[in-house]
Prior knowledge:
Layout: H1 18-29, H2 31-46, H3 53-56, H4 59-70, H5 88-128, H6 138-160, H7 173-187, E1 205-207, E2 214-216, H8 218-227, H9 229-251, H10 256-282, H11 294-304
Antiparallel strand pairs: 1-2
Helix pairs in contact: 1-10, 2-4, 4-10, 5-6, 5-9, 5-10, 5-11, 7-9, 8-9
Amino acid sequence: MSVQSNPVNGFITSLTNTKRNQADTADAGSFAVQLAQFQSQNLSTLLSAAFDSKEAADPLTAQSTSGTTASGANGLSADGRNLSLFDPESGYKMMSVIRQREVSYQTEFAALTEMKTELGDIKLESEELAGLTTSTDNSNIKAELTEFVDEYNAWIKQFDAEMQAGAALADSNAAKVSRYELDQRIESPFTGAQYGVRGMAALGLTIDPTTKLATLDTAKLDSVLASNKVGAVETIQAFSGDFAKSAAMLNADNNFISNRLANLDRVIDYIGANKASLQAEFGLGDAPKVAGISQALASYKAVSRT
Length: 306
């Protein structure tokens, strides 16, 4: 199930369509198949000079034979290569890729799990805005909106570094879509239109295009509260409901974040269960590079041990 939307709410369906969920599912569900195909295609080449043409042309025969020689007397060399392969370096490089993917998936899992938790906190903060009424003091209205802005910005800042190139969430569509949708919820010009207010921007709440942080122009808010308090309050209440609904849908079962976490969990388990046999067959591979993801990796390992 993808995030649903309508023109009034302002969701951009091109970024939240079913294809993204299908892509995430394929990423995990087909990993084993892709790996098996990779093995079959490459083992035939790697072993073509070591066996006669009939054996080399049969991936199943080649794979079985390779498994036997890899675990035999020769084993792995001191530098982690399987010298029984025709091209030990290609096998070693493939294993290096698998090891790097393993930690990439682990760190994305850890960072995305944390984002899911924090998204729930922002949802609760936005829901508090629904309690504002026309009898609420203007100072309290400003205080509640300021508190929401602070909570939202803390969320943006917390995960901004994780979404930079080379970091844990750099390639996570689930994280990117989540941030984009909440950004759009704040910037929607349709919120409050029926109350004579053109979006939260008319009340002074905007998103900086460079930093992506929310800002509140209290002078603009004061002006609207003075001229159209009923419309302002109704708009804030509508925004509260829309924002909370968006956050809930992003976090919902069978949606972006939950689906991605489930897929990552399956892939991580698959690699963990098969890594030893793959290393025996193809070589150890290089140790994964963890620059930029070390904190998320430590978080994952801490949770996985509990």
